[in-house]
Amino acid sequence: MIGKWTTGAMLALAPALAGASRYNLQDPNSALGQDIYDLHHLILWVCVVIFVGVFGFMFYAILKHRKSAGHPAAHFHENTTVEVIWTVIPFVILIGIAVPATRTLVHQRDTSAADLTIKVTGYQWKWGYDYLKGDGEGISFFSTLATPREQIDGTAPKGENYLLEVDQPVVVPVGKKVRLVITAADVLHAWWVPSLAAKQDAIPGFVRDTWFKAEREGLYRGQCAELCGKEHGFMPIVVNVLSAEKYAAWVNERKQKPAAAAEDANKQWTLAELSARGRKVFAENCVACHQGDGMGIPGSFPALNGSKVVTGSKQAQIATVLHGVVRDGKVTLMQPFRQLSDVDLAAVLTYTRNSWNNLGGEAVMPAEVAAARSSSPQALHGERASALRIAASALHAAAPAGHAGAAR
Ligand code: HEC
Ligand SMILES: [Cu+2]
Asked: Is residue 327 lining ligand 1, measured as CB closer than 6 Å?
């Protein structure tokens, strides 16, 4: 009903609005999105009518009763009729707005009976997705910005989806209710995809939820909507809505990934191969902080070019990137990169070890990363800084596997 009303009003104003459509809200891709869209337009038109009415009357009264036109001033005080009217009319308007608004809000909060539950975690500066329940349960990955650095630096022309493209979109089936449970690992973020009408703050230590049910297939884009630091504008969200069959195929393909990774790990890699692959891993995961020239940003992010950790013992370098750097019991911005495969980690370590002025000529093999991974405790949180941890894990690496966790 509201939809028809707004559509009618929009049609009447079509010529004027044609040029304005790019300033309109995005086309909704869910029933809830349509409700929110209609609610917005309903209230906008209510505001327009009030605005025109009040200002029209005011200007009319000012012009008509101005002194220069010879109008004598009136001398009345208190007029009960007028007071009742200007109390009752706004009251009716507010109730008229509150009814559809409350209905939409209740609908929006109803996350029950979902077909699929995905946990969303905000990180500085990427999104993590874990499929908790429903088809695809167990799938888990990170989604990072895919816009090439050259476009950001201005040395290449900007693409169509500049800063709105990721390496791995969230994939969901069309027409299914998807519940998102949202949290953050470091600071506040917010998961926001306008066309799906889903927007929720991601708060460290809390879990909040929201939901959407996409009605059409396609790619839907959004962004982090809570200022979260230097790369806040560089952690977009892309949702890929697929048909039921295509979604099933995707789930299947994802489930086969570990097999492919194992194959990769058994391959004999040369330094050149690892380094070439590492360049890509670096561009996707490290460049935002350590910069393409490896010089970092003085005062914030250390240079890897010439770094003692990068050019020193392999164990220490592996430990730094595998576990992140802990200071005063807190993980610094140098977070663990445990989510990268052994091959990707070996590649990026080899690349940084053999780039810029780092000319060690030594490769880090996937097997070495695998050994460090399996021999080190899952999470290291302690009072000491990374040096201690690195030393410990170097020791662990030297000890026979299985004894590593023996320290109590
Ligand atoms: C979000 C920013 C950020 C990202 C992304 C990042 N780092 Fe770091 N990195 C840091 C910070 C900050 C430190 C310094 C930590 C400390 O010592 O307090 C650091 C330290 C390091 C060090 C130790 C350098 C030294 O000389 O102490 C290495 C090695 C390193 N990072 C490698 C990597 C690699 C490889 C990647 C990509 C897989 C990566 N980093 C991604 C922020 C980042
Ligand atoms: Cu963010």
From this structure: yes
Token pair belonging to 126: 């990427």
Establish whether residue 235 lines the binding site of ligand 1, counting it when its CB lies within 6 angstroms of any ligand atom.
no
Its pTM stands at 0.64
Paired sense of beta strands 237-242 and 126-133, if any: unpaired
Three-class SS state of 129: strand
Q: What is the mean pLDDT of residues 243-266?
A: 83
Q: Would you call 342 exposed, middle or buried from its count of C-beta atoms within 10 A (0-12, 13-18, 19+)? A: buried
Quick check: CB of 319 below 6 Å from ligand 1? no
| Whether the Cβ atoms of residue 183 and residue 127 lie closer than 8 Å to each other | no
Query: Which domains, from first to last, does the chain contain?
Result: 2-108 (1.10.287.90), 116-260 (2.60.40.420), 267-376 (1.10.760.10)
CB atoms under 10 Å from CB of 344, counted, come to: 22
- By CB neighbour count within 10 A (0-12 exposed, 13-18 middle, 19+ buried), where does 228 fall? buried
Phi/psi at 388 (nearest 5 deg)?
A: -60, -45
The Cα 216–Cα 172 span in angstroms is 11
pLDDT category of residue 95 using cuts at 50, 70 and 90: very high
343 lines ligand 1 (CB under 6 A): no
User: If you measure from the C-alpha of residue 127 to the centroid of ligand 2, how many angstroms do you get, rounded to a whole number?
Assistant: 8
Q: Which helix (H) or strand (E) holds 394?
A: helix 386-398
* Nearest-5° Cα angle at 53, 49 to 54: 120
Question: Length of the chain, please?
Answer: 408
DSSP assignment string, 29-82:
-SHHHHHHHHHHHHHHHHHHHHHHHHHHHHHHHHHHT-GGGTPPPP-----HHH
Distance between CA atoms of 274 and 363, rounded to whole angstroms?
Answer: 8
Strand pairing report for 116-123 and 178-184: parallel
Which residue minimizes the CA distance to atom 7 of ligand 1? 334
**400 pLDDT exceeds 50?**
no
Instruction: Say whether pLDDT at 227 is over 80.
Output: yes
Peptide bond between residue 125 and the one before it cis (omega within 30 degrees of 0): yes
